[in-house]
Design brief:
Rossmann fold, binds 2'-monophosphoadenosine-5'-diphosphate, 6-stranded mixed β-sheet, 10 helices, alpha/beta, 6-stranded parallel β-sheet
Length: about 300
C-alpha cells in the first residue's frame, strides 16, 4: 500500500496486520496502527477480525495460510492463542498471555507487550525506571498480571498486589514471587492504606473510574502516599480518572493510561516491522477517536 496524501492504495504486495478479539468493533487499534503505517509510508494494512472463541485455532491457522505478518490479540483470546503458536517469548510465558503474534516466515512467535507498554510509558512520560522502586498494584486480573510480571523482572524493590478479592491477590503475588524471585505481598483492599506510605509507584489496573463509572475510584487516600509517589491509572477513558484528579490535587505526579495503550501498540509494530513507531501520531489518533466516542 502506498500513501498518497491521506489516500491509501492496496496492491498485490500489501502486507497484512490485524487484531483478533470478541468483541472487536470498538477497538482503537485499527485507527492507531493504520495512522502509524501511513505516517511511515509502509505498504501494510491493519485489519480488525472478529473471532468467536470457538474459532481461535482456525484463526491462527489462517494467519499462517494467509501469510498475515502480525496479529494483536485482545479479550478474550490472549490465553487461548498460546496453544496454537510455535514459540512464546519468556515474559509472555511467565504472564501466561499473548497480545502480539509475529509470523516469522511461517513460524508464529507470541509476545506480551502490555507490561512493556506500561514500562515504556513510565520511562518516556514520567521519567521513572523500575529498579529499586516499591510498587503497589491495585487489581489482580489480566492487566495486573502483565504489568506485575514485567515489573518483577525489572529489578523492582517490592511488589504489593491489592485486590477486592484477597485470595486472587495472594495467589498472583505468590506466583510472581515463585517464578521471578521478586519480593511480593498480596493483600485485600482494606489493607491498602498501611502500604501507601511505603509506595513509590501506585498503579490502578481495575475498571474503577472507567467510563461510564467515572465517579468511582479505588480506596486510595492520596495524602498517605509519599510526596514523590507517582500515581498511575491504566484506564484511558476518561483520560484523567477521579483517582488521578485526587492525586494531582494532593500535589502528586500522575500518569494516565493513554501512554500504555499507545506504547503496547508501538511495541508490536517494532516487533513486526523493526521500525521506530510515530508515537505522537498514534497518540493524537487515539485521543481523537476517544473524543469522537464521547460525542456519540
Ligand atoms: P483486566 O484484564 O482489565 O485486568 P480483569 O481480569 O477482569 O480485567 O480484572 C479486573 C480487576 O478489577 C480485578 O482485580 C477485579 O477485582 P476482583 O478480582 O475482586 O473481581 C477488579 N475490580 C473490578 N471491579 C471492581 C470494583 N468495583 N471494586 C474493586 N475492584 C474491582
Amino acid at each position: 500500500m502506498v500513501a498518497y496524501g491521506s489516500e491509501r492504495r492496496l496492491t498485490g504486495s500489501t502486507g497484512v496486520l490485524g487484531v483478533i478479539g470478541d468483541p472487536i468493533a470498538h477497538s482503537l487499534s485499527p485507527a492507531m496502527q493504520n495512522a502509524a503505517l501511513e505516517a511511515l509510508a509502509l505498504d501494510y494494512i491493519y485489519v480488525p477480525f472478529h473471532v468467536n472463541p470457538l474459532h481461535v485455532g482456525e484463526a491462527i491457522a489462517g494467519m499462517k495460510a494467509f501469510g498475515i505478518r502480525g496479529l494483536n490479540v485482545t479479550i478474550p483470546h490472549k490465553v487461548a492463542v498460546i496453544d496454537h503458536i510455535d514459540e512464546i517469548e519468556p515474559v509472555a510465558g511467565l504472564i501466561g498471555a499473548v497480545n502480539t503474534i509475529s509470523n516469522e516466515g511461517g513460524r508464529l512467535v507470541g509476545y506480551n507487550t502490555d507490561g512493556r507498554g506500561f514500562l515504556q510509558s513510565l520511562k518516556e512520560e514520567a521519567d521513572r525506571e523500575p529498579p529499586g522502586q516499591r510498587i503497589t498494584i491495585i487489581g489482580a486480573g489480566g492487566s495486573a498480571r502483565a504489568i506485575g510480571f514485567q515489573l518483577a523482572v525489572s529489578q523492582v524493590e517490592r511488589l504489593v498486589i491489592a485486590n477486592r478479592t484477597r485470595g486472587k491477590a495472594l495467589a498472583l503475588a505468590a506466583e510472581i514471587a515463585d517464578k521471578t524471585k521478586c519480593s511480593t505481598v498480596g493483600i485485600g483492599l482494606h489493607q491498602l492504606e498501611s502500604y501507601l506510605p511505603a509506595t513509590d509507584i501506585l498503579i490502578n489496573t481495575t475498571s474503577l473510574g472507567m467510563h461510564p463509572q467515572v465517579d468511582t475510584m479505588p480506596p486510595v487516600e492520596c495524602g498517605k502516599l509519599p510526596s514523590s509517589a507517582l500515581v498511575c491509572d491504566i484506564v484511558y477513558n476518561p483520560s484523567e480518572t477521579l483517582l488521578l484528579r485526587k492525586a494531582a490535587a494532593c500535589g502528586l505526579p500522575t500518569l494516565p493510561g493513554l501512554g500504555m495503550l499507545v506504547y503496547q501498540g508501538a511495541a508490536a509494530l517494532e516487533i513486526w516491522l523493526q521500525v521506530k513507531p510515530p508515537i505522537d501520531v498514534m497518540k493524537a489518533v487515539v485521543k481523537q477517536e476517544l473524543e469522537n466516542c464521547s460525542q456519540n
